[in-house]
Amino acid sequence: MRRAAAAGALLGLAGALLPACAGAPPQIITLNPARGSTSITADAPIRVVFDHQVDHGSVASRFHVDPALPGCELQRAFTAPAGAPCRVTWVPGSSAFVLEHRGAIFRPSTKYTFSIDSGVRDPAGVENSLDHHWDVTSAPAPQLLSTSPTDGATDVPVDSPVVISFNDLMDAAATAAAIHLSPAVAGTRVVANRRDHGRFLVLPGRLLDPQTAYTVSVGTGARDEHLQPLQKEAQLRFRTGGLSRGEHALVLAGLRGEAASVVLLTGLGALADGEPAPATTVLSAPRCAAPSCGAVPHGGAETAYLEATASPDGRRLAVVEHDETVAGAPPDLHIVDLAGGLDTDVMSGASHPGWSPDGRWLAYGTAQGVHLLDPVADVDRVLPPGDPLAGQPAWSGDGSVLALPVRAPDGLLHVDLADPALGIRYPVPRLGGEATAPALNHDGSELAVHRDGGARVAEGGWLVRLRGGDPAPRRLGPGITPVGYADPSTLLAVDRATGDAPALVRIGVGAGEVTRLGTGPAASDLDTIAAATSGGEIAFLLADEAGTAQAYIQNADGSNPAPLTSFGRGGLEALAVSFAG
């Protein structure tokens, strides 16, 4: 029998090279996978090609595999309907058949022997008297390749995602469903990398608890793209510390037509191509479960987050909250310790919070004036009386000067200055009338503003030297609204000059040259721009292809735009974005 099998193999090779002779028995000329193949995928179809037409029934009763495929009877597979665990189909107009077995996959690292016994005949009744045997070996099961953090890690940042990498391309839906975080955190998502199908992110639904042990388990439901599952559950254990170092972005988000109901803390871009930036929910408003909750209808958000800003060290969040259940309720200023979760109610009726660059002071406004709060020492100073704040204060990079956008009783918007160390407040020298959008350079020696114009003032961007140089205000150009300083000699601004499409520009404050940036926010989203304290990056809102507003980041020179959020259609939308520590 061994000699017959060998002879059959030689005849098969000859059949691949020479046309079948009239009256010759049918021979196998092609096997795919080929005899002796290794590391074939778990669902690899088996294709057999004869040199001419054969009687299908004579093949069905003689086709075998050892060991058997669980859930697959090969003889029945020849008549199985579509959708069966395993099914044999004949290729139309040919002498080839294919065994599909996605519901009865190969076991990992297993040698399988396929056989077709002698007796296969063609339509004329000519029989092949030789047995055919061929071996193939399946690929090993997928395995966990690496994790971040590593197993047993300590002091893991509470805002860090968990990265799970496999040594194979994985089935995204099945693998994501098999990955679990314990203790469970509501809203946690497992996201597959779109470009690297062996990499997954576990994105907790909120900041993890500090100094807490967590476990990420990967169950045997995780499987590769060819349906081969993990052979045993894998676990990653780690312990959290505090908040991660470095810069973050802060995003206010809400459903369309609502005020912001969610505050997110995100990294500045994705960890790897093909995946979203890691975003963690810091605050999420409860929703009304009753038919109504005061002024809020069923399903509505009970709290609105009107403004939010994170301290430069990323440790504390100042947020202005409004109780939506009480019509006409004043807003409340809160400070939230992001690492520990402590929520401190600072003052009712407060608004427009802004942290100093060193994170020591929080400036905010009330009906009583402009406050400077040291939350660590619990010291709250009020600057000398003046018009109330109309927007978030702007600090110089060194914290020596504070620019206050304020509104006069007659509605006129203008800018005052303050010295936080001396506790004094004063008007901008030689700059009367309307002024908005203040921006200070690093050492507080220069102020840029926008002026709407009037009888004696030309509209546009204006520059004022507060120390050194010519103190006379200098016009930068029409349509210029400052955003912030990219470096000591470069101002980022929005240019809405008549006749040109609105755009983000860089202005050399020395000579006044203007460079328009070719990429970035659309004209309708220019009012949403925020600049990082370092000056190297900007964030803004932009509608995606589905029309959903997302937060984006890019370098201040217009390069490398990247999304910070990935909200789905009909869900949350980004309403504001700013930078944190």
Q: Can you give a write-up of this model?
A:
- With 581 residues, the protein is mainly beta.
- The chain has three domains: 2-137, Sandwich (Immunoglobulin-like), CATH 2.60.40.1220; 144-240, Immunoglobulin-like (Sandwich), CATH 2.60.40; 248-580, Neuraminidase, CATH 2.120.10.30.
- The chain is 5% helix and 41% strand.
- The chain contains four helices and 45 strands.
- The strands form twelve sheets. A four-stranded antiparallel beta sheet has the order 1-2-5-4. Strands 8-10-13-12 form a four-stranded antiparallel beta sheet. It has a four-stranded mixed beta sheet with strand order 9-15-14-11.
Write the layout of secondary structure elements.
Elements: H1 2-17, E1 28-32, E2 46-50, H2 56-60, E3 63-66, H3 74-77, E4 87-90, E5 96-100, E6 111-116, E7 132-137, E8 144-148, E9 153-156, E10 162-166, H4 172-177, E11 179-182, E12 189-192, E13 199-203, E14 213-218, E15 234-240, E16 248-255, E17 262-266, E18 279-284, E19 292-293, E20 296-297, E21 303-310, E22 316-323, E23 332-337, E24 343-348, E25 351-355, E26 362-366, E27 369-374, E28 379-382, E29 394-395, E30 402-407, E31 413-419, E32 424-427, E33 436-440, E34 446-451, E35 460-465, E36 474-477, E37 480-487, E38 490-495, E39 503-508, E40 514-516, E41 530-531, E42 537-543, E43 549-555, E44 562-563, E45 572-580
Parallel strand pairs: 9-15
Antiparallel strand pairs: 1-2, 2-5, 3-6, 4-5, 6-7, 8-10, 10-13, 11-14, 12-13, 14-15, 16-17, 16-45, 17-18, 19-20, 21-22, 22-23, 23-24, 25-26, 26-27, 27-28, 29-30, 30-31, 31-32, 33-34, 34-35, 35-36, 37-38, 38-39, 39-40, 41-42, 42-43, 43-44
